[in-house]
Design goal:
There is one protein chain. The protein is about 30% helix and about 25% strand. The protein is α/β, with parallel strands linked by helices. Helix 2 runs parallel beside helix 4. The chain is globular and about 45 Å long.
Length: about 160
């Protein structure tokens, strides 16, 4: 099954998911919170390991989207990680934070998102939770041909399983 957590930019989607994941052992995946310096990083949910996502201005191996500049190597590591945990049956839920403009251009987390959505679309035992900005919701549903899903907002996570 596919769950979609949606809301406006900076509305607390990642923070709500972080709290929801915090004391669970059946969830893995990647969250994308901001560091204290305001830069984004990937956080492996179960291991609590983090790695840099946002590039510096002088980093050559980067992708620009809007006013953000991200490391291509971070997306490579993220895609490898997400695909590696997909077969672990202990993970009832796999979080991908987030599916956005890069993924709609088949960049960023597209490779793992495409694989996990296809894998878990009809699975009743393992689920993927996608974070999607509200204004990109329709485009993401169309791009990944998602028609059967549960829609969640951050308030729903407090009572979600």
């Amino acid at each position: 099954m596919i769950y979609i957590v949606t809301g406006a930019i900076r509305s607390g989607k990642t923070t709500a998911l972080f709290k929801w994941c915090n004391n669970r052992n059946d969830v893995d995946g990647l969250l994308c919170p901001d560091a204290k310096d305001g830069k984004r990083y990937f956080l492996k949910v179960k291991q609590k390991d983090r790695f840099t996502l946002e590039a510096n201005n002088n980093d050559e191996d980067s992708i620009e989207i809007g006013h953000f500049k991200f490391l291509k190597s971070a997306f490579n590591e993220a895609n490898t990680f997400l695909n590696s945990i997909a077969s672990n049956k202990e993970n009832k839920y796999i979080v991908i934070d987030e599916i956005g403009k890069l993924e709609l251009k088949n960049e960023g987390l597209h490779l793992s998102a495409d694989t996990l959505i296809s894998k878990f679309k009809l699975d009743e035992n393992q689920h993927v939770i996608l974070v999607v900005r509200d204004y990109l919701f329709d485009a993401v549903m169309k791009h990944y041909t998602i028609s059967d899903y549960y829609l969640l907002n951050k308030e729903d996570l407090e009572s979600f399983f």
